[in-house]
Design a protein that fits this description.
Elements lengths: L2 H9 L5 E4 L2 E2 L4 E7 L6 E9 L2 E9 L2 H7 L3 E5 L5 E11 L1 E6 L6 E4 L2 E4 L5 E10 L14 H4 L3
Antiparallel strand pairs: 1-2, 1-11, 3-4, 3-9, 4-5, 5-7, 6-7, 8-11, 9-10
């Protein structure tokens, strides 16, 4: 089922909008922003959405070492402004994804210029796509208000 079809399902009868943990998915993509615990560098994993599955397509960071840390094959590109991007050779698809959240990493879901922090509770968070009647999230606080997070592709 395409994103448009899922969105259409939610349009009638008050079922809601397609969200990732309550944050509306905009233009069929979202990112998970975080601060890498070893390199202390703002970074993001970029996902596309198809139906109820999401696929990790790329990693962005200001520190090239973060891309090395993933140890996966792909095309590495230096973008304007000093940002590094790793486009995964074999994108990874998920129906759900378990994430550890800490006050150091500050994992945050980002889509359409809005953010949903997954911390400070710490522990494990299960990332899933759902039709949700209400929306969560708000404006993005530093470091997630940087343009590379808000425009991740």
């Amino acid at each position: 089922m395409t994103l448009a079809a899922v969105a259409a399902l939610g349009a009638g009868g008050g079922a809601g909008h397609l969200t990732v943990n309550g944050l509306p998915v905009v233009r069929g993509r979202f990112s998970i922003g975080y601060v890498h615990s070893i390199y202390r560098a703002p970074s993001a994993e970029v996902f596309t959405v198809e139906g109820r599955r999401f696929t990790m397509r790329a990693v962005l960071s200001r520190n090239e070492g973060v891309l090395d840390y993933y140890a996966v094959p792909g095309e590495r590109v230096r973008l304007p402004g000093g940002l590094w991007k790793l486009v995964l050779a074999e994108p990874a698809a998920y129906e759900s994804l378990s994430l550890l959240t800490t006050s150091i990493g500050r994992r945050t879901v980002i889509s359409g210029g809005r953010c949903l922090p997954l911390f400070p509770a710490g522990g494990e968070v299960l990332l899933t796509l759902r039709l949700t009647p209400g929306a969560r999230g708000g404006s993005c606080a530093p470091p997630y208000n940087q343009s590379f997070f808000l425009n991740a592709e």
